[in-house]
Amino acid sequence: MRKSFALALLPAVVALGGCDGVGQALTSHTDVLARAAGHELTVDRAASLIAPQAAIPAQPEVVEAVASLWVDYTLLATAANQDSTLANVNLDLLLRPYIEQEVVWKLREAVISVDTAISEDELRQLFEQEQPGLQVRARHILLSLSPDAPQQVRDSVTRLAQDLQRRAAGGEDFAALARQYSADGSAPQGGDLGFFGRGQMVQPFEEAAFALEPGQVSDVVQTPFGLHIIKVEERQTASFEEMRDSFRASASQLKVQQAEEKYITDLTEPRNIQVQPGAVENAKEMARNPAMSLSGRAADRALVRYDGGALTAAEFLDVMRGWNPQNRGGLAQATDEQIEQVLEGLSRNEILIEEARRQNLDMSAAEQDSLRLAARMQLKRAAQEAGLVGIQPQDGETMNQAIERKVNTSMEAILKGEQNVVPLGPLSFSLRQQFGGEVFNRAIDETVSRVMAMRPPQAPQGLPGVPQPNPGGTTPPPATTTGQ
Length: 484
Known about the structure:
Structural class: alpha+beta
Radius of gyration: 26 Å
Oligomer: single chain
Strand content: 5-15%
């Protein structure tokens, strides 16, 4: 129930991009791949870490992932050895989403009051209208089509989809067509997806499938995954008696959700939320590159304006730094309309938080201290798991040299597959802001060249032993009207 109201029912899709004033700090060292808290990862050192591991591809995205992990580990080791309690680490970026969600939840409890009682007759009538137990068994043919594919490619794939639809609707063996043409994992099974209910497929696919009777073939349906032709094989449903209790609970919850949505609409619509020109492109760039820095003017640039406020580029960048790489990658590939929905949702979030605090519904200092303590304990466990706490200099070493030795040893073990990675998530950006750290893109290609030069010809290249970046992102999940 919390998630249905928390943070303005933000759609759980996608990521955004580029802003004025974005730039990378200059360095006089042309052989430096990354820098963190005064430590440097040279091109030669990075290449010597990667080159011996023949299974790790010599690719720019792999080099960037290794360099980013080196920055994270160096900064965490620096912080942990300055203060073993890690009280020196600023956790604001990490904790802000949790605090804001709790504030919005307090607002929800204060303003939403709904009579959820439903009579037996009302419940039965609603059941017959919604058919909640309905499931269909369907097959489909998927032709992959990227949203940014050239028009010539789009036209070619569309013509093929239309031809396959005519053949399937004309009675040709659908399963055989799916095995031959479908790009989906269900192709070997003739495109058979088994039974599924509402809410399990992306919306255009679901609407088309549930509109079909057994034996019918849909028109060509477009989703973020590509073009589909769908054939429904069977339809089945559960009885009212079987679903009475679970349906009553969901119907009551729906009443609450509708009250929440009405409250949010009544609160935010008068504020005239307007996505600004160029905001979508700016948002995409920030989703692709959340480690970017923004100048003062670019940081204050409004991506969305509304009466009495604005969503700035700096605020949006903070949000992106809190998302995981897969969600950021999905957002970077989303449609303009989806990105606008996210920007509008974030602006509604701001209005909700503003209203909650106007009503003095903020978290208490004690509640925030408790949350902060729990987060710091988790951070300390992560540092211990990574082996970055309690580093001791060896004879003749300074502490900085000891940190470098330990981080390099950990990186070697990770690249060999002998040690697990401890991902830092949003904390990575906090550490970079606080202690200073970045990867220099201009040195990535040189590092790739050094790695290739250090390897024997035609060295085998498979999947690396470190978490792989997601340069192309993932197809965004369907937009939802609840949760985040």
